Amino acid sequence: MDPRGFPTSLPEFQRVFPDDAACAKYLEAMRWPDGFTCPKCGLCGAPYRFLTRSSVVLRCRACKVNTSLTAGTVMQGTHTALPTWFWGAYLVTTQTPGQSALQFQRQLGLGRYETAFQILHKLRAGMVNPERDTIGGRYPVEVDECYIGGRTRGEGRGVHHQATVVGAVEVRKRKDAEDRAAQRRDSHEGGIPAKKLVYASRLRLRVVSSLPTRLAMLANPSGAAPRN
Ligand SMILES: [Zn+2]
């Protein structure tokens, strides 16, 4: 179990978040660890709670102002039920290779592809560390571009929707990698150390639209930060 109580396996997930109420309770505890505080009048204390279709509304007992449980989160204004978001967050944070919106839609049993796409996009954006620093100061950075997308349903032959994505990756060397590899014979394959001496560290990706933007980014790859 994660220190904040978020489950790290499927059986744990089922035990911790069996229904809507469990998800709402967890979310409220995460948002107001010391108990609900009214954003309008600042009063601390147990609010009135009302269930809505997809979330919970908390009403201050003093000034009677309503606060949505999901307001100010990636789930703000959602029509999707909380457990679906929680399942989504679990899938996004536990699956190492990442996943497509189509896979996401199937696994969550969502009727609309657009809903799956939006949830996935919001969860990914929410995972970006707001205090991260730029790369390129301490370690060398390699930059390249690629094209993502292509023919989609309904499009014929010819021009397809493609986005140009520029990536900058920090290249780091393993500490004393050569010495360590040289000490062990079984870590060699035909004289080549089995472990690679360099590895990819932090990564920055950004969709770019025009050639001037691309050229500017190549000149300053450390600023290559993902923006939606
Ligand atoms: Zn209040």
What do these coordinates show?
- There is one protein chain.
- It is built from seven helices and eight strands.
- It has 228 residues and is an alpha+beta fold.
- The strands form three sheets. A three-stranded antiparallel sheet has the order 1-2-3, with no helix packed on it.
- Strand 6 and strand 7 form a beta hairpin.
- The two termini are 31 Å apart.
- The C terminus is likely disordered.
- Bound molecules: zinc ion.
- The site of zinc ion has 8 residues, from loops.
Summary, kept brief:
This protein is of the alpha+beta class. Helix content is 31%, strand content 21%.
Keywords:
228 residues, alpha+beta, three-stranded antiparallel sheet, 7 helices, 21% strand, extended, binds zinc ion
- Which molecules are bound besides the chains? zinc ion
Overall 3D shape: extended
Assembly classification:
single chain
Number of strands: 8
Q: What is the H/E string? A: HHEEEHHHEEHEEEH
Biggest sheet character:
3 strands, antiparallel
The helix/strand class is alpha+beta
How widely separated are the two ends? 31 Å
**How do the strands line up in the largest sheet?**
1-2-3
Helix content: 25-40%
Layout of helices and strands:
Elements: H1 10-16, H2 20-31, E1 48-51, E2 56-59, E3 66-68, H3 82-94, H4 101-108, H5 113-126, E4 141-150, E5 161-173, H6 177-183, E6 188-189, E7 192-193, E8 198-208, H7 211-219
Helix pairs in contact: 3-5, 4-5
The protein binds zinc ion.
